[in-house]
Amino acid sequence: MNNKYHFNEFEKRFESKEIVCKYCNSRTMGDPEEQYYASIYRVMNRSNIIIKRTVEYNEIKIGIPRCNDCFKIHEGGKARGGFYTIILSILALGIFHYLFGEAVVYALIFIPIILAAFLPMGIRENYAHKHNIPTEEAPTKDNEWIKSLLQEGWSTKRPEV
Ligand SMILES: [Zn+2]
Question: Does residue 52 sit within a domain?
Fold first, then answer.
Protein backbone atom coordinates (compact mmCIF):
# COMPACT_ATOMS: atom_id res chain seq x y z
CA MET A 1 0.00 0.00 0.00
CA ASN A 2 2.78 2.39 0.94
CA ASN A 3 6.42 1.30 1.18
CA LYS A 4 7.29 3.75 3.95
CA TYR A 5 5.12 1.68 6.30
CA HIS A 6 5.01 -1.82 7.61
CA PHE A 7 1.55 -3.27 8.15
CA ASN A 8 1.29 -4.93 11.55
CA GLU A 9 -1.28 -7.64 10.95
CA PHE A 10 -1.89 -8.32 14.65
CA GLU A 11 -2.36 -4.69 15.75
CA LYS A 12 -4.02 -3.70 12.46
CA ARG A 13 -1.90 -0.63 12.00
CA PHE A 14 0.71 0.82 9.65
CA GLU A 15 3.99 1.29 11.49
CA SER A 16 6.29 3.92 10.04
CA LYS A 17 9.71 2.71 8.85
CA GLU A 18 11.23 6.18 9.19
CA ILE A 19 14.07 6.49 11.68
CA VAL A 20 13.96 10.11 12.83
CA CYS A 21 11.34 11.26 15.34
CA LYS A 22 8.80 13.62 13.73
CA TYR A 23 8.40 15.60 16.96
CA CYS A 24 11.93 16.62 17.98
CA ASN A 25 13.44 15.97 14.51
CA SER A 26 16.67 14.86 16.14
CA ARG A 27 16.43 11.66 18.17
CA THR A 28 15.81 8.29 16.58
CA MET A 29 12.72 6.23 16.89
CA GLY A 30 12.82 2.99 18.84
CA ASP A 31 9.83 0.83 19.73
CA PRO A 32 6.97 0.93 17.15
CA GLU A 33 4.68 0.72 20.19
CA GLU A 34 5.68 4.32 20.99
CA GLN A 35 4.70 5.76 17.61
CA TYR A 36 1.63 7.96 17.53
CA TYR A 37 -1.14 6.30 15.53
CA ALA A 38 -3.50 8.63 13.73
CA SER A 39 -6.89 7.05 13.01
CA ILE A 40 -8.43 7.82 9.62
CA TYR A 41 -11.99 6.84 8.75
CA ARG A 42 -14.13 6.36 5.71
CA VAL A 43 -17.86 5.71 5.68
CA MET A 44 -18.72 2.58 3.68
CA ASN A 45 -22.43 2.36 4.23
CA ARG A 46 -24.98 4.44 6.08
CA SER A 47 -28.61 3.51 6.59
CA ASN A 48 -31.26 5.78 7.96
CA ILE A 49 -34.37 3.79 8.69
CA ILE A 50 -36.62 5.49 11.26
CA ILE A 51 -36.13 2.90 13.96
CA LYS A 52 -32.53 2.07 13.26
CA ARG A 53 -29.64 4.20 12.13
CA THR A 54 -26.36 2.52 11.38
CA VAL A 55 -23.05 3.47 9.93
CA GLU A 56 -20.35 1.12 8.69
CA TYR A 57 -16.89 2.52 8.26
CA ASN A 58 -13.30 1.57 7.64
CA GLU A 59 -10.62 2.70 10.01
CA ILE A 60 -6.90 2.66 9.40
CA LYS A 61 -4.17 3.62 11.82
CA ILE A 62 -1.08 5.33 10.47
CA GLY A 63 2.07 5.62 12.57
CA ILE A 64 4.00 8.84 13.10
CA PRO A 65 7.61 8.08 14.15
CA ARG A 66 8.25 9.13 17.73
CA CYS A 67 11.27 8.68 20.00
CA ASN A 68 11.07 7.46 23.56
CA ASP A 69 11.63 10.96 25.03
CA CYS A 70 8.79 12.53 23.03
CA PHE A 71 6.55 9.54 23.83
CA LYS A 72 7.16 10.13 27.55
CA ILE A 73 6.42 13.86 27.24
CA HIS A 74 3.07 13.14 25.52
CA GLU A 75 2.15 10.49 28.08
CA GLY A 76 3.11 12.90 30.89
CA GLY A 77 0.80 15.54 29.42
CA LYS A 78 -2.10 13.05 29.28
CA ALA A 79 -1.55 11.94 32.87
CA ARG A 80 -1.50 15.56 34.05
CA GLY A 81 -4.61 16.36 32.03
CA GLY A 82 -6.53 13.52 33.69
CA PHE A 83 -5.21 14.35 37.14
CA TYR A 84 -6.07 18.05 37.03
CA THR A 85 -9.51 17.34 35.58
CA ILE A 86 -10.32 15.11 38.55
CA ILE A 87 -8.87 17.54 41.12
CA LEU A 88 -10.69 20.55 39.63
CA SER A 89 -13.95 18.59 39.37
CA ILE A 90 -13.77 17.73 43.06
CA LEU A 91 -12.90 21.32 43.96
CA ALA A 92 -15.71 22.76 41.83
CA LEU A 93 -18.19 20.27 43.30
CA GLY A 94 -17.12 21.30 46.80
CA ILE A 95 -17.77 24.96 45.99
CA PHE A 96 -21.13 24.14 44.35
CA HIS A 97 -22.18 22.11 47.34
CA TYR A 98 -21.25 24.96 49.65
CA LEU A 99 -23.15 27.54 47.56
CA PHE A 100 -26.21 25.61 46.42
CA GLY A 101 -26.57 22.58 48.67
CA GLU A 102 -28.74 19.99 46.97
CA ALA A 103 -28.18 21.39 43.47
CA VAL A 104 -24.87 19.58 43.61
CA VAL A 105 -26.66 16.54 42.17
CA TYR A 106 -26.85 18.29 38.81
CA ALA A 107 -23.40 19.78 39.08
CA LEU A 108 -22.09 16.29 39.71
CA ILE A 109 -23.02 15.35 36.18
CA PHE A 110 -22.14 18.52 34.31
CA ILE A 111 -18.96 19.83 35.89
CA PRO A 112 -16.76 16.83 35.06
CA ILE A 113 -18.20 16.66 31.53
CA ILE A 114 -17.51 20.32 30.86
CA LEU A 115 -14.05 20.20 32.39
CA ALA A 116 -13.15 16.98 30.56
CA ALA A 117 -14.16 18.54 27.25
CA PHE A 118 -11.63 21.37 27.43
CA LEU A 119 -9.10 20.93 30.19
CA PRO A 120 -7.10 17.80 29.18
CA MET A 121 -6.54 19.07 25.64
CA GLY A 122 -5.22 22.41 26.89
CA ILE A 123 -2.96 20.80 29.47
CA ARG A 124 -1.57 18.32 26.93
CA GLU A 125 -0.81 21.13 24.50
CA ASN A 126 0.77 23.28 27.15
CA TYR A 127 2.93 20.43 28.46
CA ALA A 128 4.21 19.48 24.99
CA HIS A 129 5.02 23.08 24.09
CA LYS A 130 6.82 23.57 27.39
CA HIS A 131 9.10 20.73 26.27
CA ASN A 132 9.49 22.28 22.80
CA ILE A 133 7.69 19.58 20.84
CA PRO A 134 4.35 19.68 18.97
CA THR A 135 1.25 17.85 20.19
CA GLU A 136 0.66 14.23 19.18
CA GLU A 137 -1.77 15.14 16.42
CA ALA A 138 0.16 18.08 14.93
CA PRO A 139 2.44 16.16 12.48
CA THR A 140 -0.54 14.32 10.96
CA LYS A 141 -1.27 17.55 9.05
CA ASP A 142 2.05 17.28 7.20
CA ASN A 143 1.93 13.55 6.57
CA GLU A 144 1.83 12.96 2.80
CA TRP A 145 -0.10 9.70 2.97
CA ILE A 146 -2.70 11.06 5.39
CA LYS A 147 -3.08 14.18 3.24
CA SER A 148 -3.72 12.09 0.11
CA LEU A 149 -6.23 9.88 1.97
CA LEU A 150 -8.12 12.97 3.15
CA GLN A 151 -8.31 14.16 -0.46
CA GLU A 152 -9.78 10.79 -1.42
CA GLY A 153 -12.62 11.28 1.05
CA TRP A 154 -11.23 9.81 4.24
CA SER A 155 -11.75 11.77 7.45
CA THR A 156 -9.93 12.25 10.75
CA LYS A 157 -13.27 12.24 12.59
CA ARG A 158 -14.94 8.98 13.58
CA PRO A 159 -18.26 8.77 11.66
CA GLU A 160 -21.29 9.18 13.89
CA VAL A 161 -24.52 7.24 13.54
ZN1 LIG B 1 11.46 12.90 19.61
Answer: yes
